[in-house]
Amino acid sequence: MEKSEAATIEMGNTSRESKGKAPLLAASVHHNRAAGGYKRGAAVFDLILRVCAVAAAMAATITMATTEQTLPFFTQFFQFQASYDDLPTFTFFVIAMAVVTGYLILSVPFSIVCIARPAVIGARLLLIICDTLAVTLATSAGGASAAIVYLAHNGNSDANWLAICQQFNDFCQRVSGAVVASFITVVLIIFLVVISAVALRKH
Prior knowledge:
The chain has 4 helices and 2 strands; from the N terminus they run αββααα. It is elongated and about 65 Å long. The longest helix has 64 residues, at 2-65. Helix content is 79%, strand content 6%. Keywords: Cell membrane, Membrane, Transmembrane, Transmembrane helix.
């Protein structure tokens, strides 16, 4: 008699414990699904921004690399011509932005992996490290070139640097557009770094 009562009590306790654990398990599953959906949404947004950054970086690289203007008049000894490779800063800009463009293109498959498997930490960690290096390179190239563009537009009387944009108007417009595109790239990559940091924090 005592054994049957003890068995009944144990069965009752087990039933109560299972009923208590069931809501907790359901809540945990729901939380994991919500977190997975959030991470997948962030990864999709990452891919969209990454493609936009590729377009901006490529536009900056191509625009600067094809910038050249020759004035319609010349003398017996001089031909007035301006090209991006006349200035080492613009040459560095083309090389740096080409590297950033290449990296962003290669990073697209890793971004797709983060969409397919949002719980993967390795791909996201690799992206945030490389994105940080890319934004540093793009910022240095854009900042240095912006200083040259400013001097080309306004000159510097203290350094006897004459403004050349009145004569080379097309040249200045193209290099200015390339610099603007590089800063757009910088802003987009900064957003990518923030998205990766938030996604890693959710882990």
